Automatic annotation (TrEMBL):
This protein's name: VWFA domain-containing protein
Transmembrane feature ranges: 20-42, 75-96, 329-352
SMART domains the record matches: VWA
The keyword Cell membrane is annotated on this UniProt entry: yes
VWFA domain ranges (all copies): 113-306
Key words of the record: Cell membrane, Membrane, Transmembrane, Transmembrane helix
Record PROSITE patterns: VWFA
Originating species: Spirosoma telluris
Keyword Nucleotide-binding set for record: no
Length: 354
């Protein structure tokens, strides 16, 4: 750091960096010259004057050397009040308490646990959501993963059977790769086993039985657990009833959001049905919400709504490193006041006043 007598402390660029605690003190600096003017006018009539003849002096004042000496003496007579003014100004600057504040913001989030359960059955190949339901669902799911921070996210896929494709992880790059590889041919068993898919998700998220000294279980209890189920809702396979699975999820404190992907359309070739009733019942039983996605834009808004509802708690800690620099300007003020005192109480002061 620069010494206090360095001109560096008078730099305007430096003052732009300062945070002034008491700015009122700086606003008093322009009032100091006003006090000097008031004092001057009040004392001007009280001063005693001695009238003398200066004709000979003016006759000798024609030479340039004498004129230069008189101009210097005229300027030096203001040295005392200027020193007092500068000294008081620096004292007021010190009183304003200039400081540099360096702020560090630390955000800590424990995150939440999210399991994505995505239907990859043949019915998800329907094109009512272009290019088809599954492709639209996986693209929006990837965007949802991008919007999460510090959350552990896993993936379960299901058709006639359910498989845990990715455990809870914070490796979002790996998870998005799994999502990108989803297709309707990865599970050969036909049907839609919603209950088995929920059971797989619960198994990944449920708490293990803690020991008496297990602190990890306490931390795990504090994490919010969510299942997001995307399907056409037509439960036609599996060993576990979806409603029973939803009740089991509620017992483990897991909330379930269900999304019905597609819209009911009947054609002469194939009847495409979307069973909203079972998905609504699952969401109600699982203390969650049911959503209907009839197009890609609606599907994106649903994930945005879930993203808004399931915010992980964030603890923000702000650290401030405060450096005070009032001592520097206090030293400057004392130095100028000592100079004024020196001028006042020595022969220089008497000469300048005469």
């Amino acid at each position: 750091m620069e010494p206090w007598y360095s001109p560096h402390w008078l730099s305007p660029a430096l003052w732009k960096q300062f945070h002034v605690v008491y700015p009122l003190a700086l606003s008093l600096i322009p009032a100091v010259p006003v006090l000097f003017l008031i004092r001057y006018y009040l004392n001007r009539k009280a001063q005693q004057r001695l009238n003398i003849s200066t004709g000979q002096l003016y006759a000798q004042a024609g030479s340039p050397r004498v004129q230069l000496r008189r101009s210097w003496l005229s300027l030096l007579r203001y040295l005392l009040p200027v020193s007092v003014f500068i000294g008081i100004g620096f004292l007021l600057a010190a009183l304003a308490r200039p400081q540099i504040v360096r702020t560090q913001r630390d955000e800590q989030s424990e995150g939440i646990d999210i399991m994505l359960a995505i239907d990859v059955s043949e019915s998800m190949s329907e094109t009512d959501l272009p290019p088809n339901r599954l492709v639209a669902a996986r693209k929006v799911a990837q965007l949802f993963v991008n919007s999460r921070k510090n959350d552990r996210i896993g993936l379960v896929v299901f058709a006639g059977e359910a498989f845990s494709l990715c455990p809870l992880t914070t490796d979002y790059g790996l998870l998005k790769q799994y999502l990108n590889d989803l297709n309707s041919q990865m599970i050969r068993t036909s049907g839609t086993a919603i209950g088995d898919a929920l059971a797989r998700c619960i198994n990944r998220m449920r708490d293990r039985i803690p020991s008496s000294t297990d602190t990890a279980h306490i931390e795990n209890q504090e994490r919010t657990k969510v299942i997001i189920l995307l399907s056409d809702g037509d439960n036609t396979a599996g060993n576990l009833d979806p409603i029973t699975a939803a009740r089991l999820a509620r017992a483990f404190g897991i909330r379930i959001y269900t999304i019905a992907v597609g819209r009911p359309v009947a054609s002469s070739v194939q009847a495409v049905t979307v069973d909203e009733g079972i998905l609504k019942t699952i969401a109600t039983t699982g203390n969650g919400s049911f959503f209907r996605a009839t197009d890609t834009r609606r599907l994106q808004s649903i994930f945005a709504e879930i993203n808004r509802l399931e915010k992980s708690p964030i603890r923000v800690r702000i650290y401030e490193d405060i450096q005070d620099f009032y001592r520097v300007y206090l030293y400057w003020g004392i130095a100028f006041l000592l100079l004024a005192l020196l001028l006042k109480n020595t022969i220089f002061g008497n000469v300048l006043e005469d």
